[in-house]
Amino acid sequence: MNNWRIALIVLVMAFAMLISYQLGQSKPPHIIDYLDVLGEGSTLVLTILAVVLVVVTRPQGRVTNHFYSGGLILIFSLSLDLLDEFVRYPDDMRLLSWLESLPQPLGLALLALGAFEWRKEHLSVTRQLATREKYLREHQWLDPLTTLYTARYFGYLLQREISLATESKQPLCIAYLNLTQFAKFNQLRGSAAGDELLHKVGELITLLLRPTDCVCRDHSDRFLMLLPETSAKQAQQLMDNLRDAITRELKAPKYLECTISVHPVRESSAEQALQNLGESLDFGGHYEAQPSAK
């Protein structure tokens, strides 16, 4: 989608080279100031990299357009400035000098406008995230220790995914990961080490799951995972890989192990699906979409 923007950068540089050599003549190598070439060339390369980075990483919109337009103008001026080290122009020709200097204030102004709009965008997103976090915390949907969602929120999310899976005829699985002997770890290492362990496990699960998946903390040492559009076989493989990665990365004592279980959701209600998962684990009514508590 952004290929045309990158191609336009190349065309602008080619245009700068074309008019430079059309209006001037190449300088003899012995009079070229290579220190100036190094400084001006480095500035041009860094500007190009910055503009390409903005184009590739940012979503389309007004802020991106301001940054790109300002950067493109600067690339044109900096290209002429660099070519000035290699090309000699007639003494009475001022056009190239104007093209080098006059567009730069416009380019910088567009960059400044882009930075101003970006700050407004950032403040707006920050306010939205703060409002969302406050809502989640007030409704006990966010675990304060791991910052993961709680089992209560998992129940709402699972019910939505059951409806979507029913409409799309796609498989849906839920899974859990349990840190066995976590109470022993807490007793031997202390609650601070236990809190740190839970936080690390939550981070690892979040990093290793797919973008469409969701992980929630369910009570002290258990984590619930929602796996949309995933068959039981795929979910089991995913959980096996997750368990192996957590065991490898945490370097925890041998008595502390990860137990996993996968449940293909065929129930029409989230409560029933969680109840069946709980019964299969002999946890009875433990999975009742209640708030997380350590």
From TrEMBL:
Instruction: Quote the InterPro entries the UniProt record gives.
Output: Diguanylate_Cyclase, GGDEF_dom, Nucleotide_cyclase, Rev_trsase/Diguanyl_cyclase
Keywords attached to this Swiss-Prot or TrEMBL record, sorted alphabetically, are: Membrane, Transmembrane, Transmembrane helix
Domain GGDEF residue range list: 170-294
- Single GO cellular component annotation? plasma membrane
Instruction: Enumerate the CDD domains for this protein.
Output: GGDEF
Q: What class of enzyme is it?
A: transferase
Name the UniProt record assigns to this protein: diguanylate cyclase
Q: In which organism is this protein found? A: Pseudidiomarina planktonica
